[in-house]
Amino acid sequence: MSLATRARPAAMALGLVALAAVPVLASVLDQPFYVDLFRRVMIFAVAALSLDVILGYGGMVSFGHAAYLGIGAYAVGVTTYHGVSNGYAQWALAIVASMVVALAIGAISIRTSGVYFIMITLAFTQMLYYLGISIEEYGGDDGMRLATKSQFPGVLDIGNPAAFYYVVLGILVLFLYLAHRLVNARFGMVIRATKSNEPRARAVGFSPYPYKLIAFAVAGGMCGLAGALLVNQTEYLTPEFMHWTRSGEIMFMVILGGMGTLVGPVVGALVFLLLEQVLSAWTEHWQIILGPFLVLVVLFARRGLWGLLPPGAGRNG
Amino acid sequence: MTRIMRVALLGVLAVVLAAGPALAQEKVKIGFITSLSGPAGIIGEHMKNSVELALDHLGRKVGGLDVEVIYGDDQRKPDVGKQLADEMLKKHKVHFVSGIIWSNVMLAVAPTVTSAGTLMIGTNAGPHQLAGKMCNELYFTTSWQNDQTPEAMGKYMRDQGITDVYAMAPNYAAGKDMISGFKRYFEAKLVGEVYTKLGQQDYQAEISQLRAANPKAVFVFYPGDMGIQFLKQYAQSGLREQIPLYSVYTVDEISLPVVKEAALGQWETRYWSPDLKNAANQKYVSDYKKKYGKMPVFYGAQSYDGIMLIDSAVRAVKGDLSNTKGMVAAMRKADYKSTRGTYTYNVNHHPIQNFYLLRAVKGAGGQLEMQIQKTVFENHKDAYYKECGMKW
Amino acid sequence: MTVLLIVEQVLNGLQYGVMLFLMAAGLTLVFGIMNLVNLAHGSLYMVGAYLATFFYTQTGSFLLAALLALPATLVVGIVVELVALRTLYERDHLDQVLATFGLILFFNELVAIVWGRSALYTTLPAWLSGHVVVLPGLRYSVYRALVILVGLAVAILLWLVVSRTRLGMLIRAGASNRTMLSALGVNVTLLYTVVFGFGAALAGLAGLMAGPIYAVQTGMGEQILIQVFVVIVIGGIGSIRGALVGAILVGMVDTFGVFVKPMLGTVLSPVAADSAGPAIASMLIYLLMAVVLALRPQGLFPTRAS
Q1: Closest partner residue to A240 among B77, B91, B107, by Cβ?
Q2: Cβ of B16 and A274 within 8 Å?
Q3: Residue A169 within a domain
Q4: Can you give the pLDDT at residue B2?
Q5: Which residue in chain C has the smallest CA separation from B196?
Q6: Chain A to chain B, count of Cβ pairs less than 8 Å apart?
Q7: Backbone angles phi, psi at A153, to 5 degrees
Q8: What's the pLDDT score for residue C122?
Q9: Of the residues A157, B12, B138, C284, which has the fewest C-beta atoms closer than 10 A?
């Protein structure tokens, strides 16, 4: 039993060590591709984590979370295009711009609920997607190359694959910690209370709206940074970042790993992207396996993969 | 439970790591990127078929070495194409990247490949940027620069005294090149210039606008699937009998079998046609028909040429794939049997070649086919090579 | 801008609108009665298009192919309901969205395995590939005219079924209060299967009619699906009348988007109009939806008694 209660911390520690070892292993094996792959995993883990804050903890089924991935990416792409490639400025802009847009979208969407919330978040993301498509200046439908990666002169060069990898790993760990603090703070308690029973939360004197809105904006900002990282990873800016299937994929990562847990989205992103990699190397028709797998996860593994591990002492590990 | 989890995670990791190639062998690796799914899949299929046919003709060897071709499906998306190129360079460690139908995909892929020090052999897309300011020592094309073909059509239509032309093209890199190439030689002002979404299927709303504008002729560029849709809908709207249609890359061996009579008598300009009389082309066309049971199309001819060009380069350096300079020097000579006949490379690594006027006519067996009517340009250079700083 | 042009664009909008309606009718009923968010509705549209193309190439007759494809899609729909969706009715919307997203991946890949990844193109029979003269100086595609007529006929038929038959009564009752319906002893399980099957057949009809206009390809369902969701949210979930009004509205707005650029050109500089025009045109239907939801959160024709 004592082993079981330590399962989650043990798996977490193991996972962290494994992630940190990837660049070393890749360079020993002369397989630089895997640094890119696992960096991509961690970037999506950040995006999935941000969605989990509002979906898993706040019960807000946003079907448009890819919007912030796009805004973060455009913040970097557009500033680079205009000759500003200072990383601090770009990444800060990515976060702020995403938060502002999330505030605006949230302010309208959170007034609705249920399926109307799903649809209206989707509609706003579609609008941004088409906006991206029609701005010819920034590549329109074609997208455009990122001329230079975000610059951090004198501090580090993210053009170095391993350095960039550890930056992303650092951000992921930082966000895990911040999210842990957030959901366990009084603020997080209110969010979770409104998820499980909104009328009761109102009855004890909380107006859920501002809390939900702030959570929505914070999640948008986090995802915006993921977008800034993603565009540095792909070195290509495209409206496809905001495609609605991308929103669906991020949502799937959350559910697959286990929503309402913090490590769950990370596990979800890892398993989803690795499955995609392994299955697509194995058969061209990998989606015929992924699709039913998704249905089965929803039907039978409601708590996600991380949920299969017995919870430890800390409730939201 | 925890051990199962751990084992599972490690297992996934092991499988992923093992999926990569174990050891580099002396084998030519070519990454061939094209569109294999969706509406554009009909084009990619011809390109893939032609690569395989070229390998058949070479005895499954390139430059005397064993060869492995890794195909990638870009889904007509630049970001997917770039991701594929990254994967081919880093995971498969290819020596050449080739293919690419769409100019927007090419603009994303070519700089990725050349900046990694790898050779890029384009076999269709010819965006003007890569012929001019962005030209690169490691970038070659076996096709053309986008502007060239519509330049030929613009010249032909001007010579015919046609006026009041309405132009349409998909809104992406090549669409804009095609219209600007057309205007360069047509010279007169267009009465309308409309760009539609790349990959658009339904043109009814735009055709209605066109009818209302009442031009004397229409010039379009709708490659592959878009051509099939546009030609069908143009005929169904009853406009075909009213306003003559001229096109580039729209009526070809891909669209003809589908649209049939709706394209009979259509004019095109092109650098290649299945009825070009040279030994390499006749062999390519007849073997293609034998192997795949249909007519080849220019996309395929260029891809066939691409493999032949790579073969000539590897042969010239005697299989030393690390000798990039030697391979570049060899390719500049275009010393292989091209399906278009002999051609030379301009300083920007784009062909200097002839352009012909083609027409869709009823062949001997009653089927529709493209036939060369006359030569519009001889040894035609693209309009951008002077912007390219390369000297050799 | 002539009168003829406007008439022609109205026809175009109508043609697109009835296509959306055929999709929306099934989706809104399933949504309204079973409370199921079914993203895989677009897959049934795709299956209908593929089956019709398959039967057409096998039989050589367009009509026969249509008559075979419809019941075939209905059967596919019923099988999907029995195997996968039935268990989802009691789940929350999040589960439904994800599970049906999984079904989309499955169906897209399935048709890719059976028919290949390349799009299929069909040549219409001669009697459908010509044009008719609608007004002096205005020619219109016979096929598109037929699509409009079939779509409107189905709309009238559906209205009769829903408002005049016992099945229709049950459907209306189910849309407004399904708990009460089952309490009254109606075999709800059977009703669900029947409604889903007919929704699938309607989507199949839309798919088979779309085949000759668009390319028949894997993933074609998702291109129209999002717009169909916009339609039913605007119309009010569960309302057939709402679906019709919403579909025509969206069809018109989408088609008349081609006028945005020239209209902007009269007030803005040509360059500004060039870049803003397409952006506004493609965002119009989502703006429409946001405005409708802001004014009437339950859509134009709310059904649910709340």
Answers
A1: B77
A2: yes
A3: yes
A4: 52
A5: C278
A6: 84
A7: -60, 135
A8: 81
A9: A157
- Distance from the Cα of A194 to chain C's closest Cα (Å) equals 17
- Which residues in chain B are closer than 8 Å to C257, comparing Cβ atoms? 205
Query: Residue A216 domain-assigned?
Result: yes
Inter-residue contact A42 to A19 (CB < 8 Å): yes
User: Which ranges constitute the DSSP H helices of chain C?
Assistant: 3-34, 41-59, 62-80, 93-115, 126-129, 142-164, 166-176, 178-183, 188-210, 220-235, 240-256, 260-267, 270-295
CB B270 within 8 A of CB B149: yes
ipTM of this model?
A: 0.84
Q: Do B12 and A278 touch (CB under 8 A)?
A: yes
**Interface mutation vs chain C, best among B42, B77, B194, B236, most C CBs within 10 Å:** B236
Pairwise CB contact (< 8 Å): B16 & A308 = no
Mean pLDDT for chain C overall: 87
Residue A317 is assigned to a structural domain of this protein: no
A32 lies in some domain: yes
In chain B the beta strands, taken as DSSP E runs, fall at 28-34, 61-62, 65-73, 96-99, 119-122, 139-141, 165-170, 192-196, 217-221, 245-248, 267-270, 344-345, 351-362, 368-380
Question: Nearest-CA residue of chain A relative to B4?
Answer: A309
Q: Which chains border A (3 or more CB–CB pairs < 8 Å)?
A: B, C
Domain B25-146+276-353 bears CATH identifier 1.25.40.10: no
Quick: pLDDT tens for B286-295: 999 999 999 9
Range of the domain at A116: 23-243
Report the CATH architecture of C3-295.
Orthogonal Bundle (1.10)
Best probe of the C interface among A119, A240, A297, A302, by most C CBs < 10 A, is: A119
Q: Where in chain C are the domains?
A: 3-295
The CA distance from C166 to the nearest CA of chain B, in Å, is 40
Q: List all residues 6 or more positions away from A210 whose beta carbon is below 8 Å from its beta carbon.
A: none
Polymer length of chain C: 306
Residues of A in contact with B13 (CB under 8 A): 18, 274
Q: Is the dihedral of CA B217, B222, B224, B227 positive or negative?
A: negative
Question: Does the beta-carbon distance from B205 to C143 stay under 8 Å?
Answer: no
Segment (H or E) for C141: strand C138-141
Q: Which CATH class is domain B148-271+356-380?
A: alpha beta
Q: Which residues, in sequence order, are CB contacts of A301 under 8 Å at separation 6+?
A: A307, A308
- Mean pLDDT rounded to a whole number for chain B: 92
Q: What's residue B6's pLDDT? A: 58
For residue C133, what is the enclosing H or E element? strand C131-135
Q: Hey, what are B166's tokens?
A: 């309405």
Domain regions of chain B by residue span = 25-146+276-353, 148-271+356-380
